[in-house]
Amino acid sequence: MKLDLLASREDTAAANMATDFMLLQHYPHPAHARLRHYGWRRPAFTFGYAQNVAAVRAQIGRDGDDAELCRRPTGGGIVDHREDWTYALVLPREHDLGAAPAPQSYAAIHDIVAGALRDQGCNAVLQPPATTATAGQYGGASACFTRAEPADVIHAVTKAKIAGAAQKRSKRGLLFQGSIARRTAGDIDWDQFEESFAAGVAQLLALPAAPVPWPELWDAAVDSLAENYASEAWLERR
Asked: What is the structure's pLDDT at 237?
């Protein structure tokens, strides 16, 4: 088992979601963990699999007029990708963290995000677990960055949310889709962050990491699935 580091790509919202799903379900090396960072060809918002699209549109409002909107294969809330640093990590089911309870994998990966941000002077920590007194403050928000949930990455002083994520488990493993708010993180060298984050993930997983090319015939398969993710049927699923 090893960690495959895939080259960064920029694509449509539908193609990005299709690629992440393909990395979970149809990667040709299913025993390998795989990590990628990606960008967006146009302004975009994504929202969790279980959310109602009418409610999502109402919350986004006029901000969504010139943006792509796509339902994710993972859960979670609305994510504004116009100024974020986005990544996807897939862990095979055979890895301990890939089979771990969702709160454990969520906190473990976000701890690596926070550490890579601290390497560049950002005072990043994890939002503490909910207590009896704070339990009512968590959950229910449809917009991912309106408030921090337990184990989200926040600024230690301002308490502003810096990073959140959503997860999906299948028989093949765990898909972790993460978003980091660039503006909240501050003055970050994102190339250096990517290197530090990948190294941290490799250390967390106790796996050797190496850059790898995208699989052969990958683009054709992604394009086919992206048509589904761009369809009204997928968008209106809830």
From this structure: 82
Q: Which amino acid makes up residue 45?
A: F
Burial of residue 58 (CB within 10 Å: 0-12, 13-18, 19+) is exposed
Host H or E run for residue 34 = strand 33-40
Residue with tokens 């995208």: 214
Q: Which residue has the tokens 């609305």?
A: 78
| H helix or E strand, kind and range, residue 100 | none
Whole-structure pTM value: 0.93
Phi/psi at 187 (5° precision): -80, 90
3-class DSSP state of 200: helix
Domains and their CATH numbers in the chain:
3-99+164-235 (3.30.930.10)
CA distance 102 to 95: 14
Give the CA distances from residue 193 to residues 153, 165, 197, in Å, rounded to whole numbers and listed in that order.
Answer: 15, 17, 6
Q: Phi/psi at 129 (nearest 5 deg)?
A: -60, 155
Best CA proximity match to 196, nearest among 87, 45, 98? 87
Q: Would strands 3-6 and 33-40 be described as parallel, antiparallel, or unpaired?
A: parallel
The whole-chain average pLDDT of the chain stands at 92
